[in-house]
Structure formats: structure tokens, C-alpha cells
Amino acid sequence: MMSWHFTAQTNKSLALFVLMFSFVDVSANQIDTLQEKSKVIHRIELDVVPSTILHTNAYLKGDNIEKRTMNHAFTTRLKYAFHPPATSQQAQMYKGVYQGIGVAYHNFNPQLGNPLSFFIFQGAKVKQLTNALSLNYEWNFGLTAGWHPYHETDNPENRVIGSKITAYLNANLYLKWQLSKQFDLNAGLSLSHFSNGNTTIPNGGLNIAGGRISLAYYIHRPTEESATLIPRPTFQRHITYDFMLYGAWRKKGLMLGDKAVALPKTYQVGGFSFTPLYHLNPWLNVGISLDGVYDSSANLYIEDYIVEAGQPANDFEHLAQPTFTKQIALGLSGRAEFVMPYFTIQAGIGRNIINAKGELNGWYQVLALKTNITNRLFLNIGYSLYNFQTPNHLMLGLGYHFQKKKR
């Protein structure tokens, strides 16, 4: 039974991995034919990220088999990226933008393991400070495999990592110093989060913070003098409408009496969003979303039962599923999107307003990564929180743009 569960979990994670990396395959084919007259710029980069673990729970603070605080974290990353041609409209609209794929090796305490991450990433220039120095940002998103996760007998104290495969999220703010036409030296801050998205329990998650130092090598990067710039294209404000269907799976924990219990069942989640979006400029969209959700783990309850004299109560055996109507809700949320080539990052805050009862009564937060498959269809990988702190569920979806305009 345990072997089957691990195989099923691994297959789900691999499916998510294939979906995620299809982003890059789609992206590489979307360069406009008019831009191919100028060469795409390629970049290879090696990062080292000495870090420290942020102590967010008792296990990391010393409630572990070694009885000591966990601090050690060191990451090495190897990345490939491509930039649009320097003479392209895309390069003029989105200064310094790049995107690509990478692999990372993480060195932690033995109880956590030394996992590998496979990820996509994107970054761009925030501000040019001098001719050779600029402030930049970068995000990474992927999967991390090879943890030493929670195990009821072998690693029972580990409430941080509950599965061998987790999501990997990373954000960087760094200074880029152009040493020459071919080389850059980069240094800055790096924050990382590892979580299984509530697909298994425990799901405490791991957060690390550190400094990033990297060396990047460029192929076909032109000098400022050799790059013939073209005017930035004009942008017309407009409204589009996005409709998205999503689904996911999740685990559930409950307090039964005075004891926290992880339920063995895997629960299904599904929903939709309909979002009119006002495009303020090439980088920012805002709107209001109508959100529907079905969560088969919502509002579980204990049936009334009789406990015989001298016998202990057993709430677990009397856990019941409510009717379908008590596990659906409709809400409204405000949405904002940060738009870049190939990828859009969406954030939202909302509240259920229809059938908002029990566990469906509260605020929810959404963070998602979107990428276009075609001019109309897009993929969505997102996550939802409940009341700004409680892990909720993944949002793996397919969406459609109405009145989509080409930029």
C-alpha cells in the first residue's frame, strides 16, 4: 500500500513537471519571425547561494533527533537563458528580460537531505544605475526531488517536508556588473520556499534566505554601439476577459478531540474563475474575478454516535462527508497581473460571498503563474491560501482569453 501511494504521488509530480517545462518549449517557439534577422542572445550562468534556514517551527529550532537548531543551507545552480534580439521590439518594451531552465543542488542537514531542483526562471532589469551596473530581479519555479521526508518510524520529527518531491519557489534581487561583452558578475539577495502544496501531510514547508553570487557568460550579446535600436511600440489600453477551469488534489488534517490527525484520504478540488482585466500598460493588468470552488475536504463533520460505558470515543470512525452543496462556494476577488514575455504572474485577494459557510467562510489568496499555449489558450499553475496563513490547495488549470489582443 505504501509503495502504491509513493508511485501515485510521484506520477502526479512528474505530470506537473512535464506541464511546467512545456512553458519553456512553448516560449522558445514564440519569437516573432521579424526578429529572427537579429541573433537571439544566449547565456550560461553558475550561481552559488550560501544561505541560512528560517526557523518557522519547532523541528527547525531543535525539536529533532540531533537536538540542535538547523541553520545550514547551501545551493549551487547552473542555468541556461535566452534574451530576445537586441534590435527587437520585445527587447525595447521589456528591458533586459531573459528566461530559461536550470538545475540546482541543495545541501542541508542530513535529516532534510541534499535534493535537486529542476526549474524554469525569468528575470529583467529594474533600473540602470551606471553604464556597467544595473539592479535586476529574477524568479525561479520548479520541482525539488530527493528529500528525506517525514516517516512515522524513520523520521517522525520532520514536520517540515512531508514528501520526496516538493515545489521550489525562489526570488532574487541582485546587482549586475558587466565585466565585458561576454561576462557579467552578479551579487544580491535570494529567498527560497519549498512546499508540497498540501498534497501530502505534514506540509510545514521550508524557507531559506541567503546571498547570491554568480558569473554569467553570454553568446551573441552586442555592444551598445553595435545594437541598432528601434522605437518602443505604442500601447493601447484595453479590456480582455479570461476564463479558467482548474483542478487539484489535497490532503486534510483535523483536530479530533485534543489530537491532530492526518486523514488518509486524498480529496479532490475543482473550480473556475472569470476575470475581466483592464490592461493599464504592457506590464500591468488589474481586474475583478468571479471565483467558484468545490472542495471535497470542506466542512467534514463527526456524526452523532453512542459511546458504550467504559469504551473510549472514536471520532475518526464516524467522520462524515457533507452534501455537495455544503462544499461549494462562489466568491469575488481583486486580481493584479505582472505581465512579461511568455509568463504572467497573477496575485489575488478575495472572499466567498455565496454559500460561505463553515470552512468556506473567509478570505482566500491566490498566486499563479500563467503562460500562453496559443494566442487564446493559456496554462495556469497556482496556489491558494486561506485567511492569509492556512495552506489551501493547488490550482492546475487551462484558460481562455476572450478579445485577446496581440502586442
* Rough outline: flat
Low-confidence stretches: 1-6, 26-37
Structural class: mainly beta
- Order of strands side by side in the largest beta sheet? 1-2-3-4-5-6-7-8
List keywords for this structure.
disordered N terminus; 3 helices; 52% strand; Porin; 8-stranded antiparallel beta barrel; 2 domains; mainly beta; 407 residues; 8-stranded antiparallel barrel
Descriptive overview:
The chain is mainly β. It folds into two domains: 203 residues, Beta Barrel (Porin), CATH 2.40.160.20; 165 residues, Beta Barrel (Porin), CATH 2.40.160.20. The chain is built from three helices and 20 strands. An eight-stranded antiparallel barrel has the order 1-2-3-4-5-6-7-8. It is flat and about 85 Å long. The protein starts with a helix and ends in a 5-residue tail after the last strand.
SSE map:
Elements: H1 2-28, E1 41-53, H2 58-61, E2 72-83, H3 89-93, E3 98-107, E4 116-128, E5 133-145, E6 165-178, E7 183-195, E8 206-219, E9 238-250, E10 253-256, E11 259-262, E12 267-281, E13 284-295, E14 301-302, E15 319-320, E16 328-339, E17 343-354, E18 363-372, E19 377-386, E20 390-402
Antiparallel strand pairs: 1-2, 1-8, 2-3, 3-4, 4-5, 5-6, 6-7, 7-8, 9-12, 9-20, 10-11, 12-13, 13-16, 14-15, 16-17, 17-18, 18-19, 19-20
Signal peptide: 1-28
InterPro entries: Lipid-A_deacylase-rel (IPR018550)
Keywords: Signal
